[in-house]
Amino acid sequence: MERHEFGAEVGRLLDLVVHALYSDREIFLRELVANAADAVDRRRFEALTDQFLTLPAEAKVRILPDKAARRLTISDPGIGMSKAELAQHLGTIARSGTLAFAKSLAEAPAADKPSLIGQFGVGFYSAFMVADRVEVTSRRAGTEEAWTWASEGKGDYTLAPAAREDAGTDIVLHMKADAEEFLEPFRLQAIIRKWADHITIPITVARDGKDEPANEGTALWRKPKAEVTEEAYSEFYRHVAHAFDQPWATLHWRAEGALDFSALLFVPGMKPFQAVEGERQSQVRLHVCRMFITDEAGLLPPWLRFVQGVVDTEDLPLNISREMLQATPVLARIRKAVTNRVLSELKTRAKDTEDYARFWENFGPVLKEGVWEDAEHRKEVAALLRFRSSAVEGWTSLTEYVGRMKEGQEAVYILVGDDPAALAKSPQLEGFRAKGVEVLLLSDGIDAFWPERLPEFEGKPIRSITQSTIDFSKIAGGADAGEAPADVTGLLSLLKDALKDEVSEVRATDRLVESAAVLAAPQYGPDLQMQRLMRRAGRGLGAGLPVLEVNPRHPLIRRLADPGMPQAELAETAGVLLDLARIQDGDSPRDPAGFARRVAASLASDLA
């Protein structure tokens, strides 16, 4: 037996691997299975030119737990390692035989190159997270000699002659006392299903004397689209999304060139049981050479987090940590490519109005977040938005709205609130309906925010009808205004004095037809819906005071404008007028009990 020192500062580096490089201890199995699958791939490739290296007919990676002896063995029929290779690849931290082999394949035809994993060179040492001693017995394919490499990960290792009937490698882990969970077959099978379900080499776990399959063994996303059935897509979608429905859209493609990755993504056909509004991160799974790495790589922006599926690349090292992922330029380019592909699919599907409505009703509120937070894609997302309208049935787009704008209409008009049914009946719409001007009705939570980041669309400003005064005289057509307005100049001053602590301004408006009064927001302040949200959040002070607009053609306002109106009655009526305007906009009266008493007294007086 020969004793050797590690070829690097093993104490510091092993400590880094064991305690810092990986977040979960179970990762060790992914790394060792990856190495085993890589060894099988390598032997298969070399057998193309050397028939003596041909793999056994039923080549597989075997995992054999022995709870009594507290040992875990991972065995593969791969290319194996000679004595020199054991010393070279396992005796030097951060040196990878796989990487050296990959470089030697630079001139080989692409179709013949195996998919290599474990290129970072430290994955093997993750075994020391769960084992206090590791033994590797290996026999190089094409040779008769086997050697055992052994170490406790404390600075040195030993090499000794060994015996192995066939070519390949056995890794024996002497498990730590606190790692016995990894000797339970069901736990091992669960880890394989999670991290390596789609490695194409069969993986088995010994249980009650039998080898039980642990992985599916088919990377569906790497198959040509023509070879995948709709049933296979649906089955995989339900597996990866934990869903029961049919996907609304399936995106399956391979990118080659500057970037090399395969992707299989799904847009669900129904809302998940766990609302996507709560979880803000995309959970598309990142694989490297078929091996699952993480579902927290942020492969899609938060506003596309409803998309499910897998992205698999060979341009990243297998054992890249989550922390390292965030700083990897390759991943940033993949994110951009995947995001653009999903947007392209949505644009195409949006041409079918009825079909797109199904998607919009499920995920429209989430997609709107892209307008608020993503400057790069803001215009593209805006074109995908759909709204209810005061003028047409069903859903409509901003582009369609602009195409219907009336002569003289300067802006896209919106009304934001909580309840779409209430919005459709809002007195805010009266003047717009009379003029035949369309208003988009927005009732999702995000609707109070995103218009701030999208001031215009196709050259037309987007304006809340509660936030700005509208000059209807510029807009062609519409119904006759009817009776001439009363002179309310004096009334406006009296109302302002009576409500001085509750409104910022009282003014006449021509945008009311049936209602006596309505609330508006100051032109440069937040609109009424944002003011309501700020008050609910306890930040009403920053919302400012609303504007009270009165209809000078309404009988009540004409009566209040009469010079003979008693001042005391006018002050009382001013408060009722403000409460009525608040109720019409979905707010509560300032003093609900007092308002109820005044209404009851008024009814009693009228009925007397």
From TrEMBL:
Residues 1-322 are annotated as: A. Residues 533-608 are annotated as: C. ATP binds at residues 31, 35, 76, 81, 96-97, 119-124, 169, 322. The keyword Chaperone applies. It comes from the Bacteria. Keywords: ATP-binding, Chaperone, Cytoplasm, Nucleotide-binding, Stress response. One of its GO terms (cellular component) is cytoplasm. Signal peptide: none annotated. Molecular chaperone. Has ATPase activity. This is Chaperone protein HtpG. It comes from Siccirubricoccus deserti.
